[in-house]
UniProtKB/TrEMBL annotation:
Superkingdom, taxonomy of origin: Bacteria
Gene3D superfamilies: Glycosidases (3.20.20.80)
Signal peptide positions on this chain: 1-15
UniProt similarity note: Belongs to the glycosyl hydrolase 5 (cellulase A) family.
Chain ranges of the Glycoside hydrolase family domain: 48-305
InterPro entries: GH, Glyco_hydro_5
Identification of the protein by name: Mannan endo-1,4-beta-mannosidase
Membrane keyword on record: no
Key words, A-Z: Glycosidase, Hydrolase, Signal
Lineage, broadest ranks: Bacteria, Pseudomonadati, Bacteroidota, Cytophagia, Cytophagales
Pfam families the record matches: Cellulase
Naturally occurring in which organism (per UniProt): Dyadobacter fermentans
Enzyme Commission (EC) number: 3.2.1.78
GO MF assignments: mannan endo-1,4-beta-mannosidase activity
């Protein structure tokens, strides 16, 4: 799981977005429009044609893969996924010296778009931070930096920006977490980003109740009302970090489904590999079924790597990065379950 990797590696009707020739030069927000991804009815993501788009796809650990995962994207396409959450890091290699650039990220974006999959861009550097305000400020600075912003503005109608992955270790108060995310949203809007912005839940992304209680105030703080609220469901039945019964999981997801907010499960997995007492199973089939019942999106953590093979772990859906290599729970989640990606995903209209 990504926490371990980091340790080891040291709506109102709204808009998305104009192409580069519409990008602003004076840092005022681009006007809302409906020619790309946007939130409708305050609850659902819609594509350029106004069709409801329930995100169904996978996470791809681009920051940890040779070639940043370009070889894996065509394999992910074979699942029928309509979205890929791309794991980005400012410093991406084991030595801490590799700096991920806009030129390296752009081919990932265009490859996903060409294959009908929404690129969800997430910044991974601040996972589990104890300083959410400072960390989100730094994340915002990266998204608006000199080479990154002009490149991303070209693809606004087709991308989602996940401001920062799990930017809280559980120590932030609700008020602090809300305020930090509101500031980040306002600053990104002021910089010209009108595409959907994704916010992870606090407590390593795992707290679903935060959005039920505070989601509306987050949406109201966005001048374009174009947010997606993301929960990561590392909820094992028994574990060192919490015990989640089927009844509790059902209540969580039903509450999220009835919240009237645009909710996605940005990471679901079959296991929790962060438990101090060993790998613990998660009732992922129940989670997938409840997502389908409540029309909640989900993105599986995570696709496997072609190379380096050593980057694969117990959560990898395929050990060689290939669709033909899907096995076990990875194949179930991607293909064979009634609520799998293959059986439930619908591609977006108008990404190109």
């Amino acid at each position: 799981m990504k926490h371990l990797l980091l340790i080891l590696l040291a709506g109102a009707v709204f808009a998305a977005c104009h192409e580069s020739d519409h990008s602003n030069s004076d840092d005022t927000p681009i006007s809302p429009n409906s020619d790309g991804l946007h939130v409708i009815d305050g609850k659902f993501v819609a594509d350029a044609a106004g069709n409801k788009l329930v995100l169904r796809g996978v996470n791809m650990g681009s920051a940890f893969a040779d070639g940043f995962g370009m070889a894996e994207i065509p394999e992910i396409e074979k699942t029928g996924a309509n979205a890929v959450r791309l794991v980005l890091q400012r410093q991406y290699d084991n030595s801490g010296t590799g700096t991920m650039t806009a030129a390296q990220i752009e081919p990932l974006i265009t490859s996903c778009i060409d294959k009908g999959m929404v690129p969800v861009l997430e910044l991974h550097d601040y996972t589990g931070t104890s300083d959410v305000s400072g960390s989100l400020g730094q994340a915002t600075a990266w998204w608006t930096s000199g080479d990154m912003k002009p490149m991303l503005l070209k693809y606004q109608k087709s991308i989602i920006i996940n401001i920062a992955n799990e930017p809280d270790d559980g120590s932030a108060t609700s008020d602090t977490y809300s305020a930090a995310n509101m500031d980040a949203v306002r600053n990104l809007r002021a910089a010209g980003y009108s595409c959907p912005l994704m916010i992870d839940a606090p407590g390593w992304g795992k707290d679903p109740e935060f959005f039920v209680q505070h989601g509306k105030e987050l949406m109201d703080a966005d001048p374009l009302h174009n947010l997606i609220l993301s929960v990561h469901t590392y909820w094992p039945t028994t574990g060192a970090f919490g015990n989640y019964s089927d009844a509790q999981i059902t209540a969580y997801l039903n509450n999220l489904g009835s919240s009237g907010l645009p909710i996605v499960l940005g990471e679901i997995a079959a296991i929790d590999d962060q438990d101090t007492n060993g790998i613990k199973p998660i009732n992922y089939k129940l989670i997938m079924r409840l997502c389908q019942q409540n029309q909640l999106g989900y993105l599986v953590w995570w696709w496997g790597f072609a190379t380096p093979a050593g980057s694969n772990n117990a959560e990898s859906m395929t050990p060689d990065g290939a669709y033909s290599g899907l096995l076990g729970t990875g194949k179930i989640m991607a293909v064979t379950d009634a609520n799998s990606i293959k059986n439930t995903a619908q591609r977006a209209v108008g990404l190109k």
